[in-house]
Design a protein that fits this description.
alpha/beta, Rossmann fold, five-stranded parallel beta sheet, 5 strands, 11% strand, globular
Amino acid sequence: MPAAGVSARTGRVAPAVVLLSGGLDSSTVLAVARSDGFAPHALTVRYGQRHAREIEAARKVAEALGAQRHLVVDVDLAAFGGSALTSADIPVPRNALGNEASGIPPTYVPARNTVLLSLALAYAETVGADDLYIGVNAVDYSGYPDCRPEFVAAFERMANLATRAGVAEGRTVAVHAPLSGLTKAEIIRLGLSLGVDYALTHSCYDPDPSGRPCGGCDSCLLRARGFAEAGVADPLLR
C-alpha cells in the first residue's frame, strides 16, 4: 500500500486539486494537502462575487504554501443572482450569525460548492489527480447545505460514476473535507502548526474599499470567535 500522497500507478508524488478561495479554511486545507504528501494544484473560482479581495488573497496563499500550480477560472454565478455575495441588491447581514429564521442565510450562493467541486473534478482529470480537497466545515459555519458531510459523500459517489477515470480506468476519486468536524479554533491551530500565514487570508463577505474586514458579517464573526477560542491574535487586525 503506497503512502498517502504517493500514486499507486506511478509510485511518484501524486497531484491533488485543492479548492482555494483565499479564506481561512481553504488556506488551511491547502496546507493539509501538502502535509498529506500531495503535490497540490490550487483552483480558485471567480464566480461573480462582489469583491475581488479574496482572489488576491488566494494568489498570495498559493505562492506561500508552494502550490504546484494555481489556476483561476471564471464562472458567472452572479448571472443567476439569489445571494448577497453575488447580488448588490441583497444586503450582507450584520451581527446575525445563527439568527436566520430559515437556518440558511442570504449569503448562501445557490449550488456553489456543487459547481466548484465539478470544476475541480474536471481539472483533476486533466492532471491525473484522484484526490480533491475542499475546506467545508459543519461545526462553526453559517448553515449552508453544501457544507455538510452528506453532500461531500454524495458528490464523491457521483464523481466515480461520471468520469473516465472512474468508469474506464478503474480509478477511485476521493473528496477530502479534513476540516468538516473541526471547530474554527481547531482549524486555526491546525493551520498554524502547518505554517499557514493567516495574515495573507481574507474572510469578510463585505470588506470596505481598502479590503479591511467589516467585522460584522457571519464570516468575520466566525473568524473572530475562532481566533479568540484558539487564544491567538488575528494578524489581519493587528
